[in-house]
Amino acid sequence: MEKNYYVCTGCGMLCDDIEVDVENNKINKVYTACRIGVAHMKDGKESAAFLVDNKPVDETTAISEAATILKNAKNPLIFGLGTSSNEAQKLAIELAKKTSATLDDASSFSLGEVIEALLNNKTKVCTLDDVRNKADVSIFWGTDPSDSHPRQLSKYAYFPRGTEKQRGWEEERTAICIDVRKSHTAKICGNYFFQIPPGGDAEFIDALIAALAGKLPKTSYNFPPKRILELANILKGAKFGVVFAGRGLVYSLDNLEPLIRLMNALNEKANFHLVPMIRQYNTRGFNENLFKETGYVNSVKFEDGTVKHGPEYSVVESLKEKTVDAALIIGSDPFSILPRSIAKNLLEVPVIVLDPCETLTSRNAKVYISTAIDGVESGGSAIRMDGVKVDFKPAVETKRPSDETVLKKIMEAL
């Protein structure tokens, strides 16, 4: 009997083997998903909310008010979209063009640089399915998937039996963790945990590159050279290796040059690939959709038919320098994720929020529209953390409109 599977949009892995029990249009049981996925799949709400100045209005009034704000703005900011479908993201790009907006997402202060490097073919890539079937060495660098992506090790990287790795973690797979703290993932990796000080990643990379070349590795923080040499020997023997790059690694580096050098050095000795550990389910989708349109993955400004790009067009700099006069926030909460000294500047401009959840940002918004949860209440497509396109369908019905629907109506109102 064929089973009815759903896609979990709880993180960038987009697990496509989720089963649910639905009763009275509500998900009451979720199977196969991790703890994050279970909570995410059960978070749907049947009723919709449309607020202007925190007062209930009808949908038409909310859309009209949002369109008026964008129409009157000279330099609006559109930010978020990591939890929106490809279809909604493409509409947001068109809206940014139409309103001469600054457009950005959280990848500008996260893993966007890694995704841009992959899209520009600066190093080798692979899919998560390749990892499950072929990988014998996985490095988790500056990331703790046991907490952030709980099925990463069990579904792909360490525990499963793949087509070419039938004996799994007991005999054919090695998991390595490089981090500043002994995380849950580090404990699973056991003796293959390498604890380095905060900000020490670049030095460790240089030492590892030296070890790969057969030289004595040295660090200013006196990491045992013997351990680095042992790690280098393991990596040299990899038939199919993967580096899972997390925010901890990216935040530690001034730029990606050391990481790209390491990937090149690894591929001179073995066969290694790079996969970014993306948290929001369609951050990579936003980066790829914007890249196809502009050649950039984030931080752009549309103006007079041209595209400008640079750090000054990131959400952080735009709010810090107060260069925007309105904001459309989609599926994000700047008041929670940005420093207060920067986020508070949103209080000085009219803000529109599209989000399934009530947030600190939505409470301070001029217009708030509670939208459907993609993959739970609305369908579409997304790009998985490894670049694979995934289509998803809703599990339940809702009166809440999708991001795509709302953006279409705003475009029509303009």
From TrEMBL:
The keyword Isomerase does not apply. It catalyses: N-formylmethanofuran + 2 oxidized [2Fe-2S]-[ferredoxin] + H2O = methanofuran + 2 reduced [2Fe-2S]-[ferredoxin] + CO2 + H(+). One of its GO terms (cellular component) is membrane. Pathway: One-carbon metabolism; methanogenesis from CO(2); 5,10-methenyl-5,6,7,8-tetrahydromethanopterin from CO(2): step 1/3. Its EC number is 1.2.7.12. InterPro entries: Formylmethanofuran_DH_bsu, Prok_molybdopt-oxidoreductase. Keywords: Methanogenesis, Oxidoreductase, Selenocysteine. GO terms for biological process: methanogenesis, from carbon dioxide; respiratory electron transport chain. The keyword Oxidoreductase applies. GO terms for molecular function: formylmethanofuran dehydrogenase activity; NADH dehydrogenase activity. It comes from the Archaea. Gene3D superfamilies: Dimethylsulfoxide Reductase, domain 2. Catalyzes the reversible oxidation of CO(2) and methanofuran (MFR) to N-formylmethanofuran (CHO-MFR). This enzyme is oxygen-labile. Belongs to the FwdB family. This is formylmethanofuran dehydrogenase subunit B. It comes from Methanosarcina mazei (strain ATCC BAA-159 / DSM 3647 / Goe1 / Go1 / JCM 11833 / OCM 88) (Methanosarcina frisia).
